[in-house]
Design goal:
207 residues, 2 domains, 4-stranded mixed β-sheet, two-stranded antiparallel sheet, 19% helix, elongated, binds zinc ion
Length: 207
Amino acid sequence: MHSKIPFVSYFPSRRIAFSTTLAQIRHDSAGRQETAVYLSLNSKVLILNQSYEPISVCSTKKALLLLFLTKAEIVEGRGASVVRTVRECYPFPSVIRLSAYLRVPFRKIELSRKNILRRDGFRCQYCGANQSPLTVDHIIPRSRGGNDTWENLTCACVKCNNKKGNRTPDEASMRLTGVPKKPHHVLFLKHYLGKVEETWRPYLFMD
Ligand SMILES: [Zn+2]
C-alpha cells in the first residue's frame, strides 16, 4: 500500500544542526591513514522514491535531514566518508530512498522540436550522425496521414531527411535505429542533472 504524502510536509524546512565538516579517511601511497576534512554539505544526493524510481536531487544537508527524520534510508554512501552530528555518525549519502511512496506530479513533457532532439540524444535516428544540422522527421509523412506524436517524430540529419523525402522508412529502405516513444521523466532528469555520479548510474537506467 502506498500512502500519499504531500510534498511539502515530506520535505520540512526545519533546521537541524549538522557538523559542517566531512571527515574522510584515506590511505596514502605508503598505506598510512590520513584524514582529510573539507566542507561538502552542498554536494548533490540523488533521491529515489520508495519504488526506487529516481525523483530528484537535493543537497547533502537536506538528505541528512530526511535520514535524521527517518523519512529516507541511505542506499549508496560516498566511500568511507561520514558525517557526524552531536550524537550520531552517518555515512555520507550519495543516493537515498524515501521510506514512503511519494506521489510526484511530474510536469508533462512538451512535444517540441527541442525535446524530440533531446530524447534522441541529438543524433540522427537513421544514420547516427550527430554533427550535421538536425531536423525533425515525420516517420509516416504528414501528407500520408502521419501525426505529430512522440511515436511518429524522430531526429534526422538533413541528408537523411532529404533522402527519405515523402516516403515511409520501408519505402525508402531506411531503418530507424530505435523505436521512438514518449520519453520518461528520468531522461529529462538526467539532462537537468548534468554531471552524473558513478553511484547514481544504476538508478538512472544508464547501465
Ligand atoms: Zn542521417
